[in-house]
């Protein structure tokens, strides 16, 4: 989407929100409740914003929530747009660009993911150190606008090292046993086969999910610093002798909610 169209969406939001948010937070499946803790809340539904598609997934509300948390001006995405919903990758860029041109400098992306690393357990939180793009497409394909970012963005430090360190130190302080690892995006909406999960492990993946990578590529392109946190809601297919289902994902993220909330709040406070 060109900058002119992006700014139409931004202008719509700016008419409702009169201050500049500093941090954006994308809340993954089952983790949307953190937005309820925001003070002086202003909600802007995706469907009301020009050019924004709707989010259709259970467990995702589908709105931006602006306001204050830990004394900082923030904007949260309560629900994200997924590639598997059938939107072109390009459309996934718009909410990130809206947050960018509302003024954020840092983005915290969170998601629910399947554990591929056998040392992990459901309920673990994993700081993302890098990713592998197994969607085999990219939201930046198409005409590049140099005003937004370069044609060939460097993603050798996609997940900001200082933010990873900050998250780790806060994990220690709160006594949360944080894992670290590589997130692999598959398109979904099917969960992976056991053979695919094996492949992901052999290729260096620690967790697998259906989101985040497009968000992070767009964020890096437009110059945002990114921190990624996965909630390991289940062991990926074939590791345990049991089928996977979305209700299990939501159930585990609900159980981890209070740890996740204190971790993210403390990160926001110290960022
Ligand atoms: N695979 C892909 N996406 C997921 C999973 C999984 O096992 N769990 C939660 N999101």
TrEMBL record:
Pathway annotation: Purine metabolism; purine nucleoside salvage
Domain Nucleoside phosphorylase: 22-269
One Pfam family named in its UniProt record: PNP_UDP_1
Reactions listed under catalytic activity: a purine 2'-deoxy-D-ribonucleoside + phosphate = a purine nucleobase + 2-deoxy-alpha-D-ribose 1-phosphate
Keywords, in A-Z order: Glycosyltransferase, Transferase
InterPro entries, alphabetized: Nucleoside_phosphorylase_d (IPR000845), Pur_Nuc_Pase_Ino/Guo-sp (IPR011270), Purine_phosphorylase (IPR011268)
Enzyme type, top EC level: transferase
TM stretches of this protein: none
Enzyme Commission numbers on file: 2.4.2.1
Function statement: The purine nucleoside phosphorylases catalyze the phosphorolytic breakdown of the N-glycosidic bond in the beta-(deoxy)ribonucleoside molecules, with the formation of the corresponding free purine bases and pentose-1-phosphate. Cleaves guanosine, inosine, 2'-deoxyguanosine and 2'-deoxyinosine.
Similarity comment: Belongs to the PNP/MTAP phosphorylase family.
PANTHER family listed in its UniProt record: METHYLTHIOADENOSINE/PURINE NUCLEOSIDE PHOSPHORYLASE (PTHR11904), PURINE NUCLEOSIDE PHOSPHORYLASE-RELATED (PTHR11904:SF9)
Protein name, UniProt field: Purine nucleoside phosphorylase
Organism field: Clostridium mobile
């Amino acid at each position: 989407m060109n900058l002119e169209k992006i700014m139409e969406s931004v202008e719509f939001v700016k008419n409702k929100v009169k201050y500049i948010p500093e941090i954006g937070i994308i809340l993954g499946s089952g983790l949307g409740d953190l937005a309820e803790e925001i003070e002086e809340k202003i909600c802007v539904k995706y469907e009301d914003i020009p050019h924004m598609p709707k989010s259709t997934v259970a467990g995702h509300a589908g709105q931006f929530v602006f306001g204050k948390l830990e004394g900082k001006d923030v904007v949260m995405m309560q629900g994200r747009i997924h590639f598997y919903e059938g939107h072109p990758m390009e459309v996934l860029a718009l909410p990130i660009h809206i947050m960018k041109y509302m003024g954020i400098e840092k983005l915290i992306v969170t998601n629910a993911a399947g554990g591929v690393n056998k040392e992990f357990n459901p309920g673990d939180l994993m700081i993302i150190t890098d990713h592998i793009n197994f969607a085999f497409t990219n939201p930046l394909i198409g005409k590049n606008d140099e005003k937004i970012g370069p044609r060939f963005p460097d993603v050798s430090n996609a997940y900001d090292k200082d933010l990873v360190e900050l998250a780790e130190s806060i994990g220690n302080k709160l006594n949360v046993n944080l894992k670290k690892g590589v997130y692999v995006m598959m398109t979904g909406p099917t969960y992976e086969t056991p053979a695919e999960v094996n492949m992901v492990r052999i290729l260096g993946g620690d967790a697998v999910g259906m989101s985040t990578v497009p968000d992070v590529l767009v964020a890096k392109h437009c110059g945002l610093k990114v921190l990624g946190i996965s909630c390991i809601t289940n062991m990926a297919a074939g590791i345990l002798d049991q089928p996977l289902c979305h209700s299990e994902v939501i159930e585990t993220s609900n159980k981890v909610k209070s740890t996740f909330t204190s971790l993210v709040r403390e990160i926001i406070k110290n960022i």
